[in-house]
């Protein structure tokens, strides 16, 4: 129980206990995935959050969109409000945001593929 308390993360006034297995350790932008079955370690560089939680809250970004591309969503939403959501307006901002989303998806897909590749036993 004392180890769980040491590993607990706090988000505001909410305390989250980590899962028993696998264990994730976030430190200095590096996420280490430890596969307890095979004892293999893979390291992945986490992207940097470019806006703070306060900036996202003041811009009224919904929680589900507070990801690594939120810094692109803030000016896009401002443009959308300014132009009354005209579909032919704000094309550059929308394209930049969608490209950021695509790059983040590809980063997560590669990370998952590396984890699965390392976690699968050889067929020899």
From TrEMBL:
<keyword id="KW-0813">Transport</keyword>
<keyword id="KW-0999">Mitochondrion inner membrane</keyword>
<keyword id="KW-0679">Respiratory chain</keyword>
<keyword id="KW-0472">Membrane</keyword>
<protein>
    <recommendedName>
        <fullName>NADH dehydrogenase [ubiquinone] 1 beta subcomplex subunit 7</fullName>
    </recommendedName>
</protein>
<dbReference type="GO" id="GO:0005743">
    <property type="term" value="C:mitochondrial inner membrane"/>
</dbReference>
<comment type="similarity">
    <text>Belongs to the complex I NDUFB7 subunit family.</text>
</comment>
<keyword id="KW-1015">Disulfide bond</keyword>
<comment type="function">
    <text>Accessory subunit of the mitochondrial membrane respiratory chain NADH dehydrogenase (Complex I), that is believed not to be involved in catalysis. Complex I functions in the transfer of electrons from NADH to the respiratory chain. The immediate electron acceptor for the enzyme is believed to be ubiquinone.</text>
</comment>
<dbReference type="GO" id="GO:0005758">
    <property type="term" value="C:mitochondrial intermembrane space"/>
</dbReference>
<keyword id="KW-0249">Electron transport</keyword>
<keyword id="KW-0496">Mitochondrion</keyword>
<dbReference type="InterPro" id="IPR008698">
    <property type="entry name" value="NDUB7"/>
</dbReference>
<dbReference type="Pfam" id="PF05676">
    <property type="entry name" value="NDUF_B7"/>
</dbReference>
